[in-house]
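wait is this the right file?? whatever heres the structure
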């Protein structure tokens, strides 16, 4: 059994003091589904339990996709889209996980519902950053990082569109850093963001202030330790992205 599966199992059966097969027997699976298969070590592994592990993992990926979309939507000043994505996270239930982990998920759902309920982009940014921190808390409490796939930056060039793809990539890596949690991802994003210089085609104070603020936040992000400081900083970052996009859109 690999490390990943072990982490998932701790969500499903840790602390029950019984064998994995017995714990699944308490669930809704009928005995006919309790077929045992042998893994490489020859130990018996329950098919029902394996399915639960896969289901848990699949839901984690749904949450990840949705939360990353929430981040992008807020950065683009699109509250309605952020709320649609937040609804997805609020609606994912995991009735099969151990009662002791349910409060973690309840907090996650509550934070997602806050994004859905707010009428204000700044509040949505705060709730979204808190939401990511809550994912990170549970992963940390379970003694492991969520393994988030490496996402290489595929865009080069100096056009505004390319620079913006770099902004998006860097912000998403910082978001990964909160969710993992992962210092390495957080720093990877912050470092990239701190090196981006966008050439504004026009003299516009609002845009210049936003661009400068992004750079300052990125430099601060490189030294702020893991914890609430990062969460708050990320919320400010999303709001700053949104301010510039909002200013461009509204003129
Ligand atoms: C109740 C605790 C808990 C909460 C809350 C939680 N996770 Fe997880 N997460 C886990 C566990 C346990 C694993 C390991 C599952 C596995 O690998 O089988 C995991 C793994 C993951 C993975 C990696 C899955 C894989 O294929 O290895 C991702 C992505 C993820 N979580 C995203 C999220 C996001 C995004 C949130 C918040 C919206 C979140 N998680 C909230 C417990 C939690
Ligand atoms: C100084 C103003 C400014 C700031 C700050 C800014 N952007 Fe942008 N953004 C723009 C402009 C202008 C465009 C349109 C660029 C184009 O397509 O030519 C844009 C477009 C984008 C797009 C593409 C939108 C689409 O509809 O395809 C993304 C994604 C994006 N920005 C992400 C971000 C993120 C994430 C941040 C914050 C980390 C950010 N931007 C900060 C000015 C800004």
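ok assuming it is, sequence goes like this
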């Amino acid at each position: 059994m690999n490390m990943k599966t072990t982490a998932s199992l701790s969500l499903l059966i840790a602390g029950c003091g019984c064998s994995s097969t017995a714990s699944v027997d308490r669930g809704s699976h009928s005995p006919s589904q309790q077929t045992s298969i042998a893994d490489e070590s020859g130990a018996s592994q329950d098919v029902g339990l394996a399915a639960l592990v896969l289901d848990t993992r699949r839901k984690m990926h749904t949450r990840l996709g949705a939360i990353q979309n929430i981040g992008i939507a807020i950065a683009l000043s699109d509250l309605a889209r952020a709320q649609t994505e937040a609804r997805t996270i609020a609606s994912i239930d995991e009735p099969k996980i151990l009662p002791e982990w349910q409060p973690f998920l309840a907090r996650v759902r509550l934070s997602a519902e806050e994004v859905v309920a707010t009428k204000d982009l700044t509040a949505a940014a705060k709730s979204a950053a808190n939401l990511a921190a809550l994912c990170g808390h549970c992963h940390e409490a379970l003694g492991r990082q969520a393994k988030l796939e490496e996402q290489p930056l595929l865009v080069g060039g100096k056009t505004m569109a390319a620079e913006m793809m770099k902004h998006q990539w860097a912000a998403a890596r910082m978001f990964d850093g909160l969710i993992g949690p992962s210092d390495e991802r957080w720093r990877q994003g912050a470092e990239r963001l701190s090196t981006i210089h966008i050439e504004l085609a026009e003299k516009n104070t609002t845009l210049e202030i936003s661009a400068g603020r992004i750079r300052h936040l990125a430099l601060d992000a490189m030294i702020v330790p893991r914890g609430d400081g990062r969460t708050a900083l990320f919320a400010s970052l999303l709001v700053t992205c949104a301010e510039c996009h909002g200013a461009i859109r509204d003129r």
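The two ends are 57 Å apart (CA to CA). so i think its the right one actually
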